[in-house]
Amino acid sequence: MSTSISIQTEDFDVSAELARLRAEDARVGAVCCFVGTVRDRSGGRSIEAMELEHYPGMTEKSIAAMIEETRRRFDIYGVRVIHRVGPLLPPDQIVLVAVTSAHRRGAFEACEFLMDYLKTQAPFWKKERTPEGAHWVDARESDDAALARWGVRVAPMAAQPAPQTLRA
What we know:
Elements: E1 2-8, H1 14-23, E2 30-37, E3 41-42, E4 45-46, E5 49-54, H2 58-73, E6 76-84, E7 86-88, E8 93-101, H3 104-121, E9 124-130, E10 133-136, H4 141-148
Parallel strand pairs: 1-6
Antiparallel strand pairs: 2-8, 3-4, 5-7, 5-9, 6-8, 9-10
């Protein structure tokens, strides 16, 4: 069972990442992936850029625990999570979640579950820059509801403090 987690500033090549994940296990019959990108609008406002911050070490450990919960719930073979940090512009790639399984249903469900979990529980903080100025983005209730439908009840990320460097 392959697991790979990468927190990085560099962009990633989706095709190359999926090829690597598939090559690790000949049993793979399905690969499902999600790629999140920077939108140019949010809440009706124009987005010029965004910046993502995280707690190194803590972030990887948190994502590893999410992957273990995904493995417990779904019959999957491999998982690849890449999450970018630092300054990003529309339409830059932010996140890749890729899952392999014997069959499509398991891959689809595991990928969606893991992305819902990451969106609300991974220790990342997002600042959007708009023509009106920069602001930190709060967690959305719709993201919490997406995770809750899987039966996961956890503390909202908004309740956790951002790193010291992010508070200014």
